[in-house]
Design goal:
With about 375 residues, the protein is an alpha/beta fold. The protein is about 40% helix and about 10% strand. α7 crosses α8.
Length: about 375
């Protein structure tokens, strides 16, 4: 896909204007590719709720003013798109424990039912969990148990990381080395076959289609935030990225701080007060710390492996996900914690994913007192 990108000079110009290298370009590229593939097919259909089945034909959302005009004329509800959704190669990048992987297994199965090919790329220790569900797998680097242990030791806070580094500098070196390995393994996850794909049957899965389709290049990526190489590999392939996570990340809000900031979760007295401002700033500060620590390594990797220009060293490029308006789906119940009012449109609270079939759960309105009792 790289020949479809702009020239290196234009890429650098785009970077200087705001760090949105592939975000808007990807939409145009993918639309043009799809329209060429299905030229002549002018059918239209409504976009179904939830996931969209491959082969469904629908229209892009129109501008708000046009949407209002169409609705007045009874022609459209604004949720129509203007091309047939092709079958996609979807890669789900996950860094974390067994509990992080399971919800995405449920999402992967649903995407498969809608006609897409799905690969989950995560730590090799989770291979059996993934392949036993007839989902393709790719091994990411890193040891989730060791990562979890380091998080517990630091208390899951930036200040705890600093204290741990001062107490034993070798720990920080080991952690940095592992995170760099995770970074670089993301490229293979979106562009290479699983090294063990010919031997899936040895892991409890003899799915013939998985064995015959060992070659893989992603059309789109879903990732959780700890998998920090996601944006770079998507830029290299000029494909879309969607972030999903059961904790707030990247996008600041005055309502609560970044999970790793160590700030209080008490409700701010005012949306313009000191606590609220600190909450909002904690997201950019956290990303800034990562950018300062790994920025040089990332630029070397981008140049040597991904053939991309370097990311400039200034605060505008520290929180690249927010700067590029990458969609973020918060995987918790909106009844328990609604979407913050200051989150942008591309951020939504979607709930979690499960494969368990059972009775539908009706929405229950809980008072603040009920919520406090539940938390206690």
């Amino acid at each position: 896909s790289r020949h479809l990108l702009t020239s290196p000079e234009q890429q650098r110009t785009n970077l200087a204007k705001g760090g949105r290298v592939y975000h808007n370009l990807t939409k145009k590229i993918k639309k043009e590719q799809t329209m060429r593939d299905i030229a002549g097919d002018t059918k239209t259909a409504r976009r179904p709720s939830g996931l969209i089945k491959a082969g469904s034909d629908y229209k892009f959302p129109v501008h708000s003013s046009t949407r209002a005009q169409d609705e007045e004329e009874g022609e459209s509800d604004g949720n129509d798109l203007d091309f047939i959704l092709p079958k996609l190669n979807l890669c789900i990048l996950i860094v974390g424990t067994h509990g992080d992987v399971l919800p995405f297994c449920s999402l992967a199965k649903q995407l498969q039912e809608h006609g897409h090919r799905v690969r989950i790329a995560t730590h090799d220790v989770h291979r059996q969990t993934v392949t036993s569900r007839s989902i393709e797998f790719y091994p990411l680097a890193g040891d989730p148990k060791q990562l979890s242990q380091w998080t517990v030791e630091s208390g899951g806070r930036i200040t705890g990381e600093a204290r741990a580094a001062m107490a034993d500098p070798s720990v920080l070196k080991k952690k940095d080395a592992m995170l760099k390995e995770i970074y670089t393994s993301c490229w293979g996850a979106v562009s290479e076959p699983d090294p063990l794909s010919p031997y899936y049957e040895m892991f409890g899965n003899a799915n013939g289609s998985m064995k015959s389709n060992s070659n893989f290049v992603a059309d789109a990526v879903i990732a959780n935030p700890p998998c920090m190489g996601h944006l770079n590999v998507c830029e290299a392939l000029a494909i879309p990225l969607h972030i999903m996570f059961p904790q707030p990340w990247y996008y600041g809000t005055v309502e609560y701080p970044h999970p790793f900031s160590g700030l209080s979760y008490d409700k701010p007295a005012s949306s313009t007060g000191t606590q609220a401002k600190a909450n909002y700033a904690s997201y950019s500060i956290f990303e800034g710390v990562l950018h300062a620590n790994f920025g040089s390594f990332i630029n070397q990797w981008r140049n040597a492996t991904l053939k991309l220009p370097p990311i400039p060293w200034n605060h505008n490029f520290a929180n690249q996900i927010a700067s590029c308006n990458i969609p973020f789906s918060a995987m918790w119940s909106p009844s328990f914690c609604p979407k913050p009012q200051d989150w942008p449109e591309q951020c939504q609270v979607v709930g979690t994913f499960t494969q368990f079939a059972g009775k539908a759960v009706t929405k229950v309105e809980l008072s603040e007192e009920d919520t406090i009792k539940f938390a206690d």
